Amino acid sequence: MIAPLIRPFAALRPQPEHAAAVAAPPYDVLSREEARARAAGRPYSFLHISRAEIDLPPEIDHYAPEVYARSAENLKKLIDGGILTREAKPCYYAYRLLMGTHAQTGLIAAASVAAYDAGRIRKHEFTRPDKEDDRVRQIEALNAQTGPVLLAHPDSGEAERLVAEATAAAPIADLTAGDGIRHTVWRIDDEALIARIGKIVEAMPALYIADGHHRSAAASRVAAARRGKGASGSSEYFLAVIFPARQMRILDYNRVARDLNGLSADAFLKAVGERGTLTPSDSPAKPERAGCFGLYLDKRWYHLAIRPELVPTRDPVRRLDVSVLSEQILEPILGIADLRRDTRVDFVGGIRGLSELERRVDSGEMAVAFALYPTPLSELMAVADAGQIMPPKSTWFEPKLADGLASHVLD
Asked: Rounded to whole angstroms, how far apart are CA atoms 82 and 85?
């Protein structure tokens, strides 16, 4: 029998009155120092579980066995104290994120490892072994998946309508985080509605990983290891939040380079001008469409449009703006060929604004900055459908999911 693409699960979640105290940013968006500061004076914060090194001496390696042991200990404390409780029966959950005027409503569910392994839950990034290992050890220590994988589903009005039905009820969590983002969760426990949602999702050709490649890869490894020991069941699924593709918001993911590869500013601009059109700008040059870039150098902004004949439109990876910038500017002019390892390049999430690019350059830390147009989700899906991999740091999704509002226990 083929496993369903998704299924309901009995979430481990905070009692409604504790949701605001528990909810925390994703484990991988904060430094150790930021996590320690965020969790200070907040004993219920999920950061004590997702980043348990904050409760240990500062010099400890965050991959040390003691970190995973403390994480399990902290989770047990919240369960024993009644802060977190397990749902009585398998459910789905509707989850709405509100950031300013932007709202997106999705489904918290358990997603199939078999579908991930078979490519029906599609990826678009490489993973790093050390980060995979970290997530495997975390899952095994907790016997639970606590960090959700962010998935997108192809547009489906029926799926959106069914999930929206659940939002008419009273929420089981409703909070506004420190960054101003509102998180609201509703339980979906009606058996008929659960069946209808499952049927609609099952008919979809694929789901797409937007964020969480290391978490999904780790879940696959844990499932394989347990399967090898004769165990199955809940480990064959992983925690996911699934949003309609059309509702999701991708911001720009910009680049800064440490030097001009031995070129003077004039020589660099001349080399760039041979590959595109440079137009000086009196204000920050925020790209308004794909194929256009902003360039900041010596306290001056420029609009940059790469010559169209240099953009390979048929290749779903090479036509991406992040690829075009690498192939036309970063590698041939600046000598930056390996975005994963070259320390001369860094990445700035669009949530920080173009002023952060100016700051990095004006401080002398970096020599030049490039502002990019956000990668459309349709392009991400095209790359995943082709079985290809996007360049590093191609997408920055906002708003971010919260950790701690629902965890998937492995029975």
From this structure: 6
Q: How large is the greatest C-alpha to C-alpha distance in the chain, in angstroms?
A: 68
Asked if 244 and 156 touch (Cβ cutoff 8 Å), the reply is yes
Where is 66: in which H helix or E strand? helix 65-80
The DSSP bridge partners found for residue 207 are 121
Question: What phi and psi, each to the nearest 5 degrees, are found at residue 265?
Answer: -60, -45
Measure Cα distances from 211 to 107, 173, 175, 216, 312 in Å.
15, 23, 23, 9, 26
User: How would you list the strands of the sheet with 300-306, edge to edge?
Assistant: 276-281, 300-306, 292-297, 368-372, 253-257, 345-349
Give the C-alpha separation, 270 to 38, whole Å: 46
Beta strands 149-153 and 207-211 are antiparallel
Nearest to residue 330, comparing CAs of 339, 319, 320?
Answer: 339
Q: Is the pLDDT of residue 282 over 60?
A: yes
Helix orientation angle between 213-228 and 129-142, rounded to the nearest 10 degrees:
60
Tokens of 132: 């995979």
Domain boundaries defined on the chain = 6-250+405-409, 253-373
CATH, domain 253-373, list 1.10.3470, 3.90.105, 2.60.40, 3.30.1760: 3.30.1760
Q: Peptide bond preceding 4: is omega within 30 degrees of 0, i.e. cis?
A: no
Question: Which neighbouring-strand residues pair with 293?
Answer: 304, 372
Half-sphere exposure in the Cβ direction for 97 (13 Å, CA):
23
Q: What's the pLDDT tens digit per position in 21-67?
A: 999 999 988 889 999 999 999 999 999 999 999 999 999 998 999 99
- For residue 2, is pLDDT > 80? no
Beta bridge partners of residue 291, listed in sequence order: none
398, 99 contact by CB (below 8 A): yes
81-118 core/surface letters (b: 16 or more CB in 10 A; e: else):
eebbeebeebbbbbbbbbbeeeebbbbbbbbbbbbbee
| pLDDT recorded at residue 191 | 96
Count CB-CB contacts under 10 A for residue 270. 13
Task: Decide which of 341 and 198 is more confident.
Answer: 198
Residue 71 burial (CB count, 10 A): 22
pLDDT-based confidence at residue 324 (cuts at 50, 70, 90): very high
Residue 392, pLDDT score: 86
